[in-house]
Amino acid sequence: DGGITQSPKYLFRKEGQNVTLSCEQNLNHDAMYWYRQDPGQGLRLIYYSQIVNDFQKGDIAEGYSVSREKKESFPLTVTSAQKNPTAFYLCASSRTTGGYLYNEQFFGPGTRLTVL
Amino acid sequence: KNEVEQSPQNLTAQEGEFITINCSYSVGISALHWLQQHPGGGIVSLFMLSSGKKKHGRLIATINIQEKHSSLHITASHPRDSAVYICAVRNNNNNDMRFGAGTRLTVKP
């Protein structure tokens, strides 16, 4: 079955530690995205990648880093510089970001990160 | 002011009722999406539309481009429809996606 997987589903970390969230897709999509969801707010874009070895900052990239070494994988690292890291993190992918092909984004199940 | 506003924020209905969730946006768009987020957190896409109306089972989505407004309707609601419904728009200038805060629907048996 094609889809997007995120692991782990729940993650607990101590304040000041970096943590990496996994996102893998087997949909052969070029574009991948990381969103953050906080209560009462819409999803906010952290980073996105349109192609391997390339990625762009979204609206709230400070305190986060990503890599895109493989088409299937787009891991997100929440660094100690992120002031309020406790949130629900969603990964998504789509065939392409641009053009007239209003491309549908497919979402993973999410990772809930709690920093203690 | 958020670019995408949804109403109501919370909605409780009895099984069988007709449900309407509204979405207003302030930017020019190329497409509007309705998404469903289940209690576990996963999100699935229900509709993607740029004009008119789409129907899938008991769900109907409409959009009025001139008024910058969309509605999601659920007919004969069922407890399994309980979820958060999210409206998202794709900005036609920069292709960015913008998301509403969501409407939490609870359907009671």
Please describe the structure with a list of short key phrases separated by commas or semicolons.
heterodimer, A: 116 residues, mainly beta, 4-stranded antiparallel β-sheet, 0% helix, B: 109 residues, 6-stranded mixed β-sheet, 61% strand
Explained architecture:
The complex is a heterodimer of chains A (116) and B (109). By secondary structure, chain A is mostly beta strands. Chain A contains no helices and 11 strands. In chain A, strands 2, 4, 5, 6, 9, 10 and 11 form a 7-stranded mixed β-sheet that branches. In chain A, strands 1-3-8-7 form a 4-stranded antiparallel β-sheet, with no helix packed on it. The model of chain A has no long low-confidence stretch (mean pLDDT 90). Chain B has 109 residues and is an all-beta fold. In chain B, strand 6 and strand 7 form a beta hairpin.
Q: Which secondary structure elements does this structure contain, and how are they paired or packed?
A:
The complex is a heterodimer of chains A (116) and B (109).
Chain A: E1 4-7, E2 10-13, E3 19-25, E4 31-37, E5 44-51, E6 54-57, E7 64-66, E8 76-78, E9 87-94, E10 106-107, E11 111-115
Parallel strand pairs in A: 2-11
Antiparallel strand pairs in A: 1-3, 3-8, 4-5, 4-9, 5-6, 7-8, 9-10, 9-11
Chain B: E1 4-7, E2 10-14, E3 19-25, E4 29-37, E5 43-49, E6 52-56, E7 59-64, E8 69-74, E9 83-91, E10 97-99, E11 103-108
Parallel strand pairs in B: 2-11
Antiparallel strand pairs in B: 1-3, 3-8, 4-5, 4-9, 6-7, 7-8, 9-10, 9-11
